[in-house]
Amino acid sequence: MNTPQDSSLGREVAYPSQYDPGLLFPIPRRGAREEIGLDEAALPFVGHDRWQAYELSWLDGRGKPRVAVATVSVPCTSPNLIESKSFKLYLNSLNSTRFDDDAAARLCITRDLSACAGAVVTVVFGVPPLVEEAEGESLDERDVAIERYGPPAPEFLFADAADVVTETLSSALLKSNCPVTGQPDWASVSVRYRGPKIDRDGLLKYLISYREHAEFHEQCVERIFSEITQRCQPQWLEVEARYTRRGGLDINPWRASPGIAAPARTVRDLRQ
C-alpha cells in the first residue's frame, strides 16, 4: 500500500525533463477513512476533489509551446487520491512533450490521472471565475477566545434542535498542515445545511482547532463533514474547502449528503 512517506513529499526531486506518467503517486483513501469511522463501502457523502492547475504547458506538433489552465475533478468514490507534489511533477513532465493538438494533450492528462485515481477523472481547460465575498454568513469576526489549535475538537460542535434552518456559514480561517512535510495548508471553508441551527461560536472554534492538525486536504474535509453530521444531526449537509495554491495547483474538496447535486456554478476565492 502506498503511504505519504513513500511519496516524493519532503524529498529533493530532479525536475522532470520528459513525459513520465509514473511520477503520479496514488494514496489509498481507505486508511484515513477508517480512522474517522467511515465505511468505504457505504460512504455517507457524495463529492469530488476539484483541482485547479495554473502552470500547464506542452509543445504543439511543430514544437511551439502551448500554455493553459485547467480544472480537474476526481470523484470521492475513487479508491485513491492523487498526491499533490507528484501531480505537479507530472504536469511539469509535459513541458517538452509534443501533441498534435490541444485535444490530444487533454486526453493524455485525463487518461493518466484516471489511472492514478482508479476512476474516471474529468479534465477541462479553464478555471472558475473569482468571487470577492464568500457566500452566506462569515464567522470570522465573532468575538470568541481561542485556546485549542489541535487536534480537531468536535466537542465544540452543537446545534439547537428547536430551531431548524437552511443556511450557509463560512470561514477563511481554516488551516491544517501537510502530514509529511509539516507545511501549512490554508483554506476557506463553507458549510451549507438544513437542520438544527449550528452554534456559530462552536463551529468557528471547531474549524480553528485544525490549525496544528496534520492531514491531507481531502481527509480534513471528510472529517469536518463527518463530525458536523454526528454532532449536529443536519437533515442534509454540504462542506467545501477552497485551499490556496501551492506549486501551481490548488484543491477544492467538496462533500455533500447523498442526493445533493454538485454546485451548478463553481468559483474561486480571491486567495486562489
Compile the SSE list and pairings.
Elements: E1 26-28, H1 30-35, E2 46-59, E3 65-75, E4 80-82, H2 84-92, H3 102-117, E5 122-125, E6 130-131, E7 137-138, E8 159-177, E9 184-198, H4 200-208, H5 217-232, E10 236-243, E11 249-256, E12 268-269
Parallel strand pairs: 6-12, 7-8
Antiparallel strand pairs: 1-4, 2-3, 2-11, 3-5, 8-9, 9-10, 10-11
Subunit structure: Homodimer.
InterPro entries: GTP-CH-I_C/QueF, NADPH_dep_7-cyano-7-deazaG_red, QueF, QueF_N, QueF_type2
Main location: cytoplasm
List keywords for this structure.
single chain; about 270 residues; alpha+beta; eight-stranded mixed beta sheet; two-stranded antiparallel sheet; about 20% helix; about 35% strand
Strand content: 25-35%
**Class by SSE composition:** alpha+beta
Taking pLDDT < 50 over at least 5 consecutive residues as the criterion, the unreliable ranges are none
Helix content: 10-25%
**Which descriptor suits the 3D outline?**
elongated
Order of secondary-structure elements: EHEEEHHEEEEEHHEEE
Order of strands, widest sheet: 5-3-2-11-10-9-8-7
Protein name: NADPH-dependent 7-cyano-7-deazaguanine reductase
EC number: 1.7.1.13
Domain NADPH-dependent 7-cyano-7-deazaguanine reductase N-terminal: 15-123
Main location: cytoplasm
